[in-house]
TrEMBL record:
Its EC number is 6.1.1.19. It catalyses: tRNA(Arg) + L-arginine + ATP = L-arginyl-tRNA(Arg) + AMP + diphosphate. It is found in: Cytoplasm. It comes from Levilactobacillus hammesii DSM 16381. A motif ('HIGH' region) lies at residues 122-132. The lineage of its organism: Bacteria, Bacillati, Bacillota, Bacilli, Lactobacillales. Belongs to the class-I aminoacyl-tRNA synthetase family. Keywords: Aminoacyl-tRNA synthetase, ATP-binding, Cytoplasm, Ligase, Nucleotide-binding, Protein biosynthesis. It comes from the Bacteria. This is Arginine--tRNA ligase. One of its GO terms (cellular component) is cytoplasm. It holds the Pfam family tRNA-synt_1d.
Length: 563
């Protein structure tokens, strides 16, 4: 039963056309506590129209309202407070959740539209650090949320496997590298060379010229440059995939920058044919002054391509291959200006999906307030963080539940889930100062707290396995259950909001809220007491378990049945 619609209809009838249904719905508020009602209508804005005091308007409306569908309607100052019929509302909500199961909240708003998601995209020959976590888990969660809303996401790990950094890496390897060392410890050795290059080129700027020459050789198909590049790429991918497996993240394509190398010529030709390329100090640029943007540099003076050249080729390929309903780039906030330039160039080129290109920015992960950087050697390896988190989770579980049968598997789910949830509970544009111990707490706004609420619900269902729980006929009048029931009813709206805003934190914050209301209900009510309402209470527990598990799944977090 959609009570928002019911409240809107009752008010529309009483107002007799003075506000439209949409205007009424937009003004409805959710009181902070249930003792002030379940929905409230403020009358301030009607005072000017009706030339009466808001308090009087509220009272007049109350006198005219049909209250059949409500437990009661109270006037409190300028507010009309609506109290829902708890029995009817609980029965309707639980029936909807239990009948739909894990499909609860699913809709077809996306109409099957393709949505390529440019995400994760680590640079080859560099380890995955905590700095790579955000794009990976935000992109993965957005993909799950889009699917829930009827879209068809295409997760594209657009690997940084091309560009001037490979000229630097090849130069460093040729100067200081050793094949046996690299084979023994590929990523760490390659990073060591890369960091050394940036230290040495401070006093030896000629190294940059050598690096540019090597990258140009790579672009031109030089055999040695290509052999080294391929070796670096394969070694890196092997380590990346170990991390992705642990995070439970899968991709639909790994088309990195190198995939588009043979497509750059067409990009340049289109820009030339449309008379968009102009020369500037020997380089080729696109003038974007009509967008109040700086020129986009397409080709360097030596003819070498840049990130944007390859990103134009990528966008063109996605446009032709997927005809995207949206084309998303889950990339840090520092690249916001760059994506404005990319979108402007694509619009000038007449690419059909240019208007659907959307940068999905996110803030930095810092440690002790300092930014992470491979170049400076200040990195915290993501694999090491996950390993430490699982270890700490195992210690916590061993202390709380030493008899748990599958402790290591649960520790893996809790430890990894804590890192993922700890990121996604934050609004994505916020910066995060990472503290591992804070993520793993079983109390407070953490992943383990939500997972534990789900495990508690499952434990109760196991204890009452002999009780037949049906989707229909579950009226609950216990006021302690009321906040939990209303929160369950909110889930479909949260799914839609998370999709509209491309914001996983909407789901994470919802999961915390549901876990809190359920834990409060559990603390104040004897759920397993054998009386007439026991099946209805168990139906509520089952609904909570279902929605918590689905909320966690949308975030890319597993929900253990026991902890």
């Amino acid at each position: 039963m959609d009570y928002k619609q019911t409240v809107t209809a009752a008010l529309a009838k009483a107002l007799d056309g003075q506000l439209t249904a949409d205007e009424i719905a937009a003004k409805l508020e959710r009181p902070k506590t249930s003792d002030k009602g379940d929905m409230a209508f403020p009358t301030f804005t009607l005072a000017k129209v009706l030339h009466r005091a808001p308090q009087q308007i509220a009272q007049d409306l109350a006198d005219q309202l049909d209250t059949t569908d409500f437990e009661k309607v109270e006037v409190v100052g300028p507010y009309l407070n609506f109290f829902f019929d708890k029995g009817v509302y609980s029965e309707a909500t639980l029936k909807t959740v239990l009948t739909a199961g894990d499909s609860y909240g699913k809709n077809e708003d996306g109409n099957g539209g393709n949505v390529p998601i440019d995400m994760s995209s680590p640079n080859i020959a560099k380890p995955m650090s905590m700095g790579h976590l955000r794009s990976t888990v935000i992109g993965n969660s957005i993909a799950e949320i889009l699917t829930k809303n009827g879209y068809h996401p295409i997760k594209d790990n657009h690997l940084g496997d091309w560009g001037t950094q490979f000229g630097k890496l090849i130069t460093a390897y040729k100067l200081w590298g050793n094949e046996a060392d690299v084979k023994a410890d590929p990523i760490n050795k390659l990073v060591e060379y890369y960091v050394r290059f940036h230290k040495e080129d401070v006093d030896k700027p000629e190294l940059d010229d050598v690096a540019r020459e090597w990258f140009k050789k790579l672009e031109d198909g030089d055999e040695e440059a290509h052999r080294l590049w391929k070796w670096f790429r394969e070694a890196s991918l092997q380590e990346f995939n170990d991390v992705y497996d642990e995070l439970g993240v899968k991709f639909d394509t790994y088309n990195g920058e190198a995939f588009y190398n043979d497509k750059l010529e067409e990009v340049v030709q289109i820009l030339k044919d449309k008379h968009l390329l102009v020369e500037s100090q020997g380089a080729q640029v696109v003038d974007l002054s009509k967008y109040d943007l700086n020129p986009a540099l397409i080709l360097k003076s030596d003819g070498a391509s840049l990130y944007i050249t390859r990103d134009i080729a990528t966008a063109l390929y996605r446009d032709r291959t997927y005809a995207p309903a949206k084309n998303l780039y889950v990339v840090g906030s520092e690249q916001t200006y760059y994506f404005k330039q990319l979108k402007a160039v694509l619009k000038e080129m007449g690419v059909k999906s240019a208007d659907n290109l959307q940068h999905v920015p996110f803030g930095l992960i810092t440690v002790d307030g300092k930014k992470l950087s491979t170049r400076s050697g200040r990195i915290i390896l993501l694999a090491k963080v996950l390993e430490e988190s699982v270890k700490l989770a195992a210690e916590e579980i061993n202390e709380k539940n030493p008899g748990l049968a599958n402790k290591q598997a649960v520790a893996q789910q809790v430890g990894v889930g804590a890192i993922v949830f700890g990121d996604l509970k934050n609004e994505r544009t916020n910066n995060i100062d990472f503290v591992l111990a804070d993520q793993l707490k079983f109390e407070g706004e953490t992943g383990p707290y939500v997972q534990y609420a789900h495990a508690r619900a499952e434990s109760m269902l196991r204890k009452a396995a002999n009780v037949d729980v049906q989707p229909a006929g579950n009226q609950i009048t216990d006021p302690e259950a009321w906040d939990t029931i209303k929160t369950l009813a909110d889930f479909p709206a949260m799914v839609k909001m998370a999709c509209k805003e491309l914001e996983p934190s909407v789901i994470a914050k919802y999961a915390i809220r549901l876990a809190k209301t359920f834990n409060k209900y559990y603390a104040h009510s004897k759920i397993l007491t054998e009386d007439a309402e026991l099946p209805a209470r168990l139906a509520l527990v089952k609904a909570v378990s279902t929605v918590l598990k689905e909320s966690l799944r949308l975030l890319g977090v597993q929900a253990p049945d026991e902890m």
